[in-house]
From TrEMBL:
Domain of life from the UniProt record: Eukaryota
Single GO term (MF): [pyruvate dehydrogenase (acetyl-transferring)]-phosphatase activity
Domain spans labelled PPM-type phosphatase: 204-579
Organism encoding this protein: Verticillium dahliae (Verticillium wilt)
Cellular component annotations (GO), alphabetically ordered: mitochondrial intermembrane space; peroxisome
Protein name: PPM-type phosphatase domain-containing protein
CDD domains, alphabetized: PP2Cc
Amino acid sequence: MHRAATRALRTTYRCTARTLTRSSRRGLLLPQQPSAAVAYGARQYHRNPARSPQHAGHAIEPLQSSMYIRRFSAAFVSGLVGYGAWYTYNGNGTATDSHDAVARSFATTTATTTSDAAAPTRTVLVIGADELHTGTYVGEGPISKTTGNDGKRVVEMITPDQATEKLRKTEQSYFVNRGQGVLRYDLVQLPSNDPIEDDHAEKIVEVPGRNGASDVPNSDWMFWGVFDGHSGWTTSAKLRQTLINTVANELNDTYKAAPGHSPAAEAVEAAIKAGFTKLDDEIVHQSVEKVLKSGSKTMAAELLQPALSGSCALLSFYDSRSKLLRVACTGDSRAVLGRRSDSGKWTATALSVDQTGSNPDEAARMRKLHPGEDRVVHNGRVLGGLEPTRAFGDATYKWSRDISMRLRQAFFGRTPSPLLKTPPYVTAEPVVTTTKVNPENGDFLVLATDGLWEMLTNEEVVGLVGKWIETQASGSSSNSQFDSTWARIFGSGNKPQLPVEHAKGQDVGGQKTPIRLQQWGISPDAPERFVVKDKNVATHLVRNALGGKNEEQVTALLTLPAPFSRRYRDDLTVQVIFFGNGSKTGEVVVNLEATAPEEPVKAKL
């Protein structure tokens, strides 16, 4: 009997992936012989036994926020310099309140002084309950004013160079020299919450030829995922640790059981859904059983955190043999495919739909499941509270009222909504789409949490990637396999407009529209909004989402400290995957040009 043996390859943060030998990578995703996923680091690698299917979702390491795993510094660059009202100085030296200068936008107010033209000028950011604007402060001394009780804070603006450093702090890029239809992938994160509630995961699994035939080449299963946490970071961290392994185990069982090891499309989709729902059952229900059985508050503190917080999940699965890309979406993160059209421009195709209470299809589904409950979706939210209608965790929308109250009284928990009658109201079951990828045409995929889509449209994101490709192709002096493949597919060119076709009459369903431009007071039709200055395309997208060529806006948004920054931008996690037929050395190599340098290890006291 054929066993779908797999060899697992995992790229780790800022680590050079080494050439993989047969002995170092082989493993099985089978209960009889657990797989071995090998993580390769710059100096060492670690072999960890994979979980058997019945324990696929059980974490083998304590949950940690991705911010701390990647040594991401949450320290504010310039620091808080004072509280109270902020005043500019007019020509006669008297102080005037700048409250009305600019509200909810980033226009600069000008401060001057006649007493000392040579006095130093410092740029500041004024933060109030209902305003945000920049200004200048002339003179020495701390920038603070204690007059009034309006609770304003004054923060010295970071410089454009510091803004770039902050944008690139977590960027990663990898060349995928597997010869299996993927050339490269880039990713970056930018926190707004402290710590960041987003997370991500990537994994490549090598699958031997069918029936062990020597004339059938091996293929790859490639996974990329972004996880948008809310009400804490623990659920998204749990997904980073376990979701890909859980889904891969379900897929392995499905392929083994299928005739000729070629399952029907419906069976593959069902396996992905089973992986999602089984993991959520472990998070939400099996954790409660263990806690109630043990009676331990220590266990409750550990196991209930991923249940009480929540996370959306967006997972892509690419099978290099069939060239089929499947995208599973639970929540409101979004996947968009970029594809070159006959006109030479790019087209944007959404491969997921935002699942929120504002989506008419999702609202109708929930009302059908809970007849007679008029407020099952209220103000675009589940029971008037939770925006996504599908999510991992969020157990207070899934537990019975009795379970919620027992846990609250004996351990930890939240009081359920007074509207809760017939739980569960929220499900982790994803909607799965299937798309045929054309690696030879240079397709690319963008996965991002909803923070990006609050700032940019699908067409803008695809056009920005297309613009970045044009710039790299025309200005690159590299002789790498990636660049030569790129130039062969796209040629070179550098045109001023975004090279994207705007779809007319396309049904966007429940997709959110970018709301931040209106909040920031910026016209979406403003000329020359965008810029190309980053080697990492994910960082390029984040920079342009925050303001692009408007450096003052970019630096202002990056100066904002948590938690106030959350009013103006969300956590951001972006992955971009480039498909193409490149070299086949078996390696996944760090692209140092587009990866943040590793921070030096600090001496322990």
